[in-house]
From TrEMBL:
GO terms for cellular component: plasma membrane; proton-transporting ATP synthase complex; proton-transporting two-sector ATPase complex, proton-transporting domain. It comes from OCS116 cluster bacterium. The gene is atpE. It is a multi-pass membrane protein. It comes from the Bacteria. NCBIfam families: PRK07558.1. This is ATP synthase subunit c.
Length: 74
């Protein structure tokens, strides 16, 4: 296998983190909305967890993108 082909395959695998981040963000907001609709009085207490989960999931996707760029352009 040529080195360029291996770089493209590695970058593609690293970009799977972006797909996982998108799915994770949807699950986080969906679970929060479902919980808030079932118990509106507890929604305010869970908002911190919502924002923390969103930030960590988004960071995972961004790290995957950075790793993909490092693989492609190094």
């Amino acid at each position: 296998m040529e080195a360029d082909a291996a770089k493209y395959i590695g970058a593609g695998i690293a970009c799977l983190a972006l797909l996982g981040a998108g799915i994770g963000i949807g699950n986080i907001f969906g679970s929060y909305l479902q919980g808030a609709l079932r118990n509106p009085s507890a929604a305010a207490g869970q908002q911190t967890n919502l924002l923390l989960g969103f930030a960590l999931t988004e960071a995972t996707g961004l790290f995957g993108l950075v790793i993909a760029f490092i693989i492609l352009f190094s």
